[in-house]
Amino acid sequence: MEAVLAHLRNAIERGEYAIGDKLPSEAELCRTLEISLPVLREALRALQTMGLTVSKTGKGTFVVANAVEDPTFGDYAASDLLEVRRHVEIPVAGYAALRRTPENLDHLAHLLDRMERETDTTAWVAMDTLFHLAVAEAAQNPVFRRVIEEIRDALARQSAFLNELGGRREQSNREHRAIVEALIDGSELDATDAMAHHLDRVETTLTDIVRPARTDSTTEGGPEA
């Protein structure tokens, strides 16, 4: 899927498909790129998340931008989402370290164990949002949980995007483990540092994904088999 995405993204960024152009039909793209329909549809969804295309039911996929600027996850732009997460989740982790209960720690440890064993991306993404909700619950302030609930769909979409295109799952598990260990230790400083590091890595991966696609012999000639 990554190779198909890079191929289509390069074609858009090079101007082979201009703003307003309709991409070839799914059947035509599958035939010319020699790929399956599920792989193509994953790549088309990623293009739309990146803000390069829009899909219109019954009409097809149309180019709306020739460069990636700020991906959208649900109702929120990535930059807006990350800004809020930094201002909310970092201090929340500190409060959680000071206020967590044994039940909070048991719940987080159980979630973390399940995430580290999970191999299905969809199931892992669902637990990823539950993990961040659980940290907010451990802060013992219902308003924090309500804020995370509000952005829960966007968090899930961002998580899926980063895992599909950035291979973030194992790294996220390690970062989550560091957060839980800080909460167990009751260290406000370590908890805020661990959450800040986690969000830093999210931003770095996002930035790597949205940089202009690299043009090389593989992408110019189509995706590798």
From TrEMBL:
Record's keyword annotation contains Transcription: yes
Protein name: FadR/GntR family transcriptional regulator
Pfam families reported for this sequence: FCD, GntR
SMART domains: FCD, HTH_GNTR
Top-rank lineage group of the source organism: Bacteria
PANTHER family, per database record: TRANSCRIPTIONAL REGULATOR, GNTR FAMILY, UXU OPERON TRANSCRIPTIONAL REGULATOR
Organism: Streptomyces machairae
InterPro entries according to UniProt: GntR_C (IPR011711), TF_FadR/GntR_C (IPR008920), Tscrpt_reg_HTH_GntR (IPR000524), WH-like_DNA-bd_sf (IPR036388), WH_DNA-bd_sf (IPR036390)
Keywords: DNA-binding, Transcription, Transcription regulation
Residue stretches making up the HTH gntR-type domain: 1-66
